[in-house]
Specification:
Radius of gyration: 25 Å
Shape: globular
CATH topology of the largest domain: Rossmann fold
Distance between the termini: 118 Å
Number of helices: 7
Low-confidence stretches: none
Number of domains: 3
Number of strands: 17
Helix content: 10-25%
Order of helices and strands: EHEHEHHHEEEEHHEEEEEEEEEE
CATH class of the largest domain: Alpha Beta
Largest sheet: 6 strands, antiparallel, barrel
């Protein structure tokens, strides 16, 4: 009698490989904890830092983020966490997308925000592309932003749980198709807890102080701008009458709402900068009321939802560290939008970001355009 062949035992299924993540590491505590948490959660983590600094970077800026010293610390943290680390050269992109436009905006009489540009055009554009080249499904950063999936399975960005650290303001320009590929492991944590987690893991950045400066600007912004743009004497004029009330060395040295350091002829009068006009090299000043805006127009818009879903009533934040205000959407298209504030707002600065929210959800934003107003004829 022929013996039946044994029934083959199926091989156990091969477990799917853990998702691969490119973790942006700046040498700070937030990105250090981000890398550690991802590793503990089972991700295949690749640490990376984007090199922005030029070869002739001044030594007095080495304590800022994205500096050679920060790169050294990021590499040491990667060794502590047990992940590979790479230094990626983005000097040319940084100069083209960040430093050059920063100077150009001041030359135009506007007030730029380079961190928005950096996140939009470098970190969540160039870095996402690099992640895909390396076979990574995700990019992770230490931003205090919450990644939320809605009932349709779509990824939304919400304000971080620590209101003092929320960084959604800087991420309105993120390409919408990149949202599903971005992780924020510390978005639901408060800063003190992040430092505790770093200390518990013995990470060398646990007590490292935060960098408050613009990474490529040593010292004061005005001093640095003065090195980039030549002085050009011009008139300071009263917005109501066109009267010359002072002299300036260049419109790039002023910001809307400024009232100190104007050097007006009638120094006893309180005046505010209400408009900058590089075309005529004129700084316009006026009363507090002249600095109040009923609404704004924004250009270069980016939306993190379908435009048809944009609510008629939104909250808008016109600068970092200020409370959002209610506004009505007068018009919105793929290029920009126009808003009317529920209450007039002081010194809304062209070049800054108007960031749109529905409660904690980030909807998108745009760059504030010049305030359209009728100016007195120059005599």
């Amino acid at each position: 009698m022929t013996q039946a062949a044994p029934t083959p035992v199926p091989a156990p299924p091969t477990p799917a490989p853990a998702p691969r993540v490119l973790c942006a590491m700046s040498g700070g505590v937030d990105s250090s904890v981000t890398a550690a948490l991802l590793k503990e959660q089972g991700y295949q983590v690749i640490g990376a830092m984007m090199r922005f600094w030029p070869d002739d970077k001044r030594v007095d800026t080495f304590d800022s983020c994205c500096s050679p010293d920060a790169a050294f610390e990021a590499r040491r943290v990667a060794e502590q966490v047990g992940v590979p680390f790479y230094l990626l050269d983005y000097r040319e992109q940084f100069q083209r997308h960040i430093v050059g436009p920063f100077v150009d905006e001041y030359a135009r009489g506007r007030t730029p925000n380079p961190c928005v540009n950096c996140n939009t055009k470098v970190k969540f554009d160039e870095l996402v592309k690099k992640a895909r080249m390396l076979g990574c499904q995700y990019v992770a950063t230490g931003h205090y932003v919450k990644r939320v999936e809605n009932e349709r399975g779509e990824v939304e960005f919400w304000r971080g749980d620590d209101p003092r650290k929320d960084q959604t303001y800087f991420l309105w320009g993120t390409p919408r198709d990149a949202l599903p590929h971005i992780l924020f492991p510390v978005g639901e944590l408060e800063k003190p807890r992040v430092r505790e987690l770093a200390a518990e893991r013995g990470l060398l950045t646990a007590s490292k102080p935060e960098s408050q400066n613009i990474c490529f600007v040593p010292g004061k912004v005005q001093d640095w701008v003065a090195e980039q743009l030549p002085q050009s004497r011009g008139a300071i004029r009263e917005i109501a009458t066109g009267e010359v009330v002072g002299e300036h060395l260049g419109t790039q040295f002023y910001t809307l709402g400024q009232k100190k350091g104007l050097g007006l002829y009638q120094s006893h009068r309180v005046r505010y900068v209400v408009h900058l006009d590089p075309a005529t090299n004129t700084v316009w000043v006026g009363d507090h009321e002249d600095c109040l805006w009923d609404g704004l127009r924004a250009e270069g818009a980016n939306y993190l939802l379908d435009l048809a879903e944009l609510p008629d009533e939104v909250e808008v934040q016109v600068r970092y560290r200020t409370k959002p205000v209610r506004a009505t959407v007068v018009h919105a298209d793929e290029h920009g939008f126009e808003l009317k504030f529920a209450e007039p707002q002081f010194a809304v600065a062209p070049g800054q970001s108007a960031v749109l929210y529905a409660g904690p959800r980030l909807l998108g934003g745009g760059l504030i355009a010049d305030h359209v107003r009728e100016l007195p004829a120059l005599g």
